[in-house]
Design a protein that fits this description.
There is one protein chain. This protein is α+β, with helices and mostly antiparallel strands and 101 residues long. The chain has a domain of 57 residues. The chain contains 3 helices and 2 strands. A two-stranded antiparallel ribbon has the order 1-2. β1 and β2 form a beta hairpin. The radius of gyration is 18 Å and the shape is extended.
Length: 101
């Protein structure tokens, strides 16, 4: 826990792999002064990332995913027997065989 949050609960971080529909940046001028794409190595070298263990670890996971050395979580779209609706099940693909007994 990095700060005193409500009800003394811990933070949760979620990493999502997103692919842009376009590389054109559309910033909202009333809220954002400047915006630009940044090479991942430049982002990783920033003091904020290097001096923060959580950010540093998250960036390393993302980099490993991009270069193909980490498969990460996969998703399967399944129908729920309780609500008859469709839901995503997220699981760690690297450990699938050890849990499929």
């Amino acid at each position: 826990q990095s700060h005193k949050s409500l009800f003394e609960k811990s933070e949760l971080f979620f990493l999502c792999l997103l692919r842009p529909l376009s590389f054109e940046i559309q910033r909202q001028e009333s809220e954002i002064d400047a915006a630009a794409w940044m090479p991942i190595d430049d982002f990783k070298a920033q003091p904020f990332v290097q001096n923060n263990d959580i950010w540093k670890h998250m960036v390393e996971i993302c980099s490993a995913r991009v270069d193909g050395s980490y498969t990460g979580f996969s998703s399967t779209y399944l129908r729920s027997t309780f609500t008859d609706s469709w839901n995503y099940l997220y699981w760690n693909q690297g450990n699938r065989d050890s849990h499929s007994r």
